[in-house]
Design goal:
By secondary structure, the protein is mainly alpha-helical. It is built from 9 helices and no strands.
Length: 237
Amino acid sequence: MDKALAFASKEPSFQAADESVKALAPKLKELLETTGEMQAYYQAKTYAEDEFAKGKELHKKLLVQFNEVSDLADKFFADFAVITEQRKKEDLEELKKSDQLVRYHAMSIVNRAQDIQKAFDKAGVTDDNVLDFDLNQYAELYKLLTEDIDKFTELSKDQERLKKERVQIVPVFTDSIQRVKTSATDLMEILRTKDTTISSDMKGKVTTGGRNVPLKNFDKRVSALVNSYNTMIGLSR
């Protein structure tokens, strides 16, 4: 937090995000001091001596501070997301300009998958009301994702290009891509057919039923995709 606070006053300036850090850091420190005080209180078993009197006061204090930090953290993440999105666009443009198309489409796949996540989140749609999401909007997002996947798959077979870009395709990344595509396709079919029971993972399996959670499954696979992408890029430096 001290480092983040120091950077918030240095160049380059990130405007709103810098101000959000300056507001968040001191409140977060106060919260951590309170949790530290709580830990010491319970470890020393002081609650046995005061019948939880101090514990009740610390609890009230914690709730107030947590709500303050939560609101400030939401503001920071929103401000920082603007910077992140701009940096992603700049990185993609640079990759395209330098003809690093394998890297370009790999990064774009991650971005497209995250765009789907953000679209559902912005619409307030979860597994409980997944059919409320607009089919046409999803179809466009799905099209962009699958186009990038197809292009990456094609280019990743070009050994000369891989050598030129000095990129090492790792199996965990290609596997993650296919898993994300499968989940995305399931979502497409669910929205198209209005059938929430569709799940490619369950085909050919004997199950005892249970609730299908396509968005939760998609989120898990996007998280794995991000991790495998970072692994691949780390190995390809």
